[in-house]
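Annex B. Sample input.
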Amino acid sequence: MVLHRKNALFYRTMNGARVGDLFMSLIHTCDLTGVNAFDYLVELLRHPKELAANPSEWMPWNYGDTLARSREG
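Annex B, continued. Sample output.
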């Protein structure tokens, strides 16, 4: 996290900094909940329509249950 803060000084735009912060927040939340961040982000990319329809169901702490339900149906 400290390295991200240092690297954030060199973002070209404020939007780039916001996007970087968003991803760092998701990655850190995955770490806190014991979820593999890479697998989580890959699944978000694989399910864009479901994610847009119900973003709260795809948070790191409950995306596994949502993924299991989507594979059943």
